[in-house]
Design a protein that fits this description.
The complex is a heterodimer. Chain A has 3 helices and no strands. By secondary structure, chain A is mostly helical. The N and C termini of chain A lie far apart (53 Å). Chain B is an all-alpha fold. Chain B is built from 3 helices and no strands. Chain B is elongated. The chains are: A mainly alpha, B mainly alpha. Chains A and B meet through helix 1, helix 2 and helix 3 of A and helix 1, helix 2 and helix 3 of B.
């Protein structure tokens, strides 16, 4: 069911997304302000969603698409929590 | 065996990887946090949504394919919300624009700037 073209595309896509995630880590480490780091972490979260979907397509196991959805939800909640913490100084007030 | 479905999946994966690359170049190269957020929240969302659409094309309209569509809707709802919240907290923290731009009400003047 998997053609060599699809395998090559998935492998290339995984390589590109992994490289891009590594580059986003530069902004997390170096970013001059705290919101810069949060933006970098948000980007890493979105890239990991893409990695999970690419892995699902490559292996043909649809379970990993649900892993991607859960990762997207966790990334959104963590972004909201950090933004709230930066604004209010506390998460649950 | 190269079916049209495989070709469409490969094209969507290529488009998605390209937009993720564009978003990260913007994250690394643009001058301040608002510009970086502008790059990542749009280009990265489009890239991840394109890869999720490739998952929908690959898995068909049931099971994991439907979960991919739900993921696209979820990303389009949450990525602008998260970017708005981060930029609002950056404005409350008093992060200034690159190049000396000002908020319309001059609000960033009376807040302590953590980057100084």
């Amino acid at each position: 069911m998997s053609s060599p073209l699809l395998d090559a595309a998935v492998t290339g896509g995984l390589l590109v997304v992994a490289f891009v995630t590594l580059l986003s880590g530069y902004r997390v480490v170096v970013g001059p302000t705290t919101p810069d780091r949060v933006v970098g972490l948000d980007t890493i979260g979105t890239n990991v969603v893409a990695v999970a979907v690419l892995y699902a397509v490559g292996t043909g196991r649809g379970l990993f698409v649900e892993v991607a959805l859960v990762l997207a939800i966790i990334g959104f909640i963590s972004t909201i929590a950090v933004a709230q913490y930066l604004t209010e100084g506390d998460i649950i007030t | 065996m190269t079916t049209p479905r495989t070709l469409l999946t490969v094209a969507l994966i290529a488009v998605g990887a390209f937009f993720l690359l564009v978003g990260t170049v913007g994250l690394l190269r643009l001058p301040d946090v608002y510009n970086r957020m502008h790059a990542t929240s749009k280009a990265t969302t489009l890239g991840a949504s394109s890869i999720l659409l490739a998952g929908f094309v690959h898995f068909g309209p049931q099971g994991a394919g439907l979960v991919s569509l739900v993921g696209i809707v979820f990303l389009f709802l949450t990525a602008p919300t998260g970017a708005h919240l981060i930029s609002r907290s950056a404005q409350r923290m008093g992060v200034d624009f690159a190049g000396g731009g000002r908020w319309p009400g001059g609000e960033s003047d009376d807040v302590d700037d953590p980057t100084d």
